[in-house]
Amino acid sequence: MTLYEQLGGTPEINKIVTLFYQNVVADPLLAPLFPEDITPVMEKQGQFLTQFFGGPPLYTSVHGHPRMRARHLPFEITKGRADAWLSCMRRALEERVPDASLRESVLERLSHTAYFFINTEG
């Protein structure tokens, strides 16, 4: 069973994304990286995570190849920001995903990606 299925599919992933971005916009390290209207970012994140966790290729079908590292290069991504991003996701998952081992599997998968985006010391 994929992480997508274990998480409850696209509807549940979108609920996690909503909680996640509530945390992001309140975080002093992360909030400055995002536009005032975060809705399009949330939609893309939901599409990407659906695909990333083994669901339908929603992101690719709309936006093409993710090229996520290239898309994040214009932003200063530090280890502190990657840690903050993961902390925001951890809190969202704790609210929506009762299974602790599933939460850890999701965070482990996302950790590789978050730290891969680091492009600035600090």
How would you describe the overall organization of this protein?
This protein is mainly α and 122 residues long. The model has no long low-confidence stretch (mean pLDDT 94). The longest helix has 18 residues. The protein has a single domain, classed as Globin-like (Orthogonal Bundle), CATH 1.10.490. It contains seven helices and no strands. The termini are far apart. This is Globin. It holds the Pfam family Bac_globin. It comes from Paenibacillus mendelii.
The fraction of residues assigned to DSSP E strands is under 5%
Net shape: globular
CATH architecture heading: Orthogonal Bundle
Low-confidence stretches: none
Radius of gyration: 14 Å
The residue-averaged pLDDT reads 94
Number of domains: 1
Q: Structural class, judged by helices and strands? A: mainly alpha
Tell me the total number of β-strands. Answer: 0
- By CATH, the topology is Globin-like
Please identify the top-level CATH class. Answer: Mainly Alpha
Helix content: 55-70%
The CATH superfamily appears as Globins
- Main beta-sheet strand count, sense and barrel state: none
Secondary-structure element order, as H and E?
Answer: HHHHHHH
Number of helices: 7
Short descriptors:
single chain, Globin-like, 68% helix, mainly alpha, globular
